[in-house]
Amino acid sequence: MDCGLENRFVGSTRCHRCYDRRRRTGRIGTCARCSKSRPIHDPDGRCDFCVFVGRPRPVVIVPPCVVCGEARRIIAHGRCNRCLSRSPTSTETYADGLALRLGPSLPDWYRLFVAHVVERYSPSEARLRLTELARLLGATSEPDALVRAATHPGGRLSPLGRTLDEFFERLGSRHAAGDSEALAAGRRARQIATVPEQLRPAVAAFSVDELANRERARRSGGRVLTDQTLMVHLHVICEFIRYSEDIIDWATVSQGDIERYMASRAPVPSHILSSLHAFFGWARRRRLILVDPTRGVQNKRRRRFAGPVVDLTTQRRVFRRWTTDPGVHPYEALVGLLSLVHAVSVNDLRHLKVTDIDRTNRTVRFAGRSRPVPLDPSSWTAIEGALAHRLGLGTINPHVIVSRRTKVTDQPMGDQHANNLLKPSGVTPTRLRCTRLAQLVTTIDPVLVAELFGVTHGGALYYLSDSVDDALLRRDL
């Protein structure tokens, strides 16, 4: 513009020499737009930068996006960046590129995993899972090794670890253990660490044997011990050792030590003696001791129900809340009414599926009961509200109650999720169920209760020798 030479910079009207000359010879003043002290050449009192910013720009006509219809910058296939990133085809294209980059390390189940994540996650989350998987496939492609690599040091699975765990179970490559067993293993290790060092190897070996027995029972279809039961066994043993500080060898434990420990826990809970029986029976079979010190020791306390029950006023309050309050979460009303009216256990609530609901007869089949359960109008309304809420989530989980974590999986809700749902009401599902069973057992035939509610005859008689208020149990809801 000034010297007539070819401009070296795109979009500029002066070369750098003329620009510097103009900047040095200009009158220094305050810009009328940015209020900075700069050379002023414009008649309106603006610096060159403000003149450049305020220049008239050509009008560019942008075609609308073929998906959202907004005038955004088109990236590819007539779509803006936002709509292109949300398209499921972008995930498949990304997966094809990853397959080319992986080359020989691409496993044969890769395409099945791509379909698995596309079905469950948004395109951005699916691509994130594929990116993390490609990083791990550079080291190994074995299912167990991949799940271990996608596990945090504390034992909790990462998002990719949970996806791989569920995918390999559906593929039949491994059993989906989740991160509950890993967290339980950490709790058991911390409990074993409280035992004195000279007695610790036996307790650790007992825990390993119990885990092996559980896996054997799981494969053969036998009775599988839960993580809570295994933890109770270890807790009792470790508490016994802490109480008997003079014991330095398992072979020196006598029947008197067992009786003194049980006397200190009076009234003795029913699980104390059974846990000691399990450990010392195992120790005798392993030749760690010659005589079982728990042989001949009996718990003289009669096993009976001594848990708290929900009073009639609270039952009426929560029933009105779950049937008349429109602001109550549908899952809270469902869990509360099924526990209060039908004495449904938490385990049955966790594994309740949509296919277990018969809309024609208005019945529900629970896993722990031999026949479908007919529902009253209030409970059926709660079922319909829960199904409508589940439909709005767009989940693929077959269970009726899904949480934020299980929405994109096939797993049931966690053990504590039902308690969290009823926290606004101030009650728990287990307490509601015990209240209902205690009332029915004391008012009708216990054998009939055992047959209808899927409990054993001993479990029904357990509520007959209770210690709760008899007058309260004789009242009707």
What's the total number of strands? Answer: 7
Q: Major sheet, described briefly?
A: 3 strands, antiparallel
- Tell me the strand percentage band: under 5%
Briefly, what CATH class of the largest domain?
Mainly Alpha
The global form is elongated
From N to C, what is the helix and strand string? HEEHEEHHHHHHHHHHHHHHEEEHHHHHH
Strand order of the largest sheet: 5-6-7
For the record, give the distance between the C-alpha atoms at the N and C termini, rounded to a whole number: 94 Å
**Domain unit count:** 4
As a percent range, the share of helical residues equals: 40-55%
**Class inferred from helices and paired strands:** mainly alpha
CATH topology of the largest domain: hpI Integrase, Chain A
- Identify the CATH homologous superfamily of the largest domain: Intergrase catalytic core
Alpha carbon gyration radius: 35 Å
Report the total helices: 22
Task: Please state the average pLDDT score.
Answer: 84
Would you kindly provide a brief summary of this structure?
This protein is mainly alpha-helical. The protein has helices at 16-25, 48-53, 81-86, 88-102, 110-120, 123-137, 143-149, 159-171, 180-192, 200-220, 227-243, 255-264, 270-285, 312-324, 330-342, 346-350, 377-393, 417-421, 429-443, 446-453, 457-462, 470-473; strands at 27-30, 37-40, 74-76, 79-80, 357-358, 363-364, 373-374.
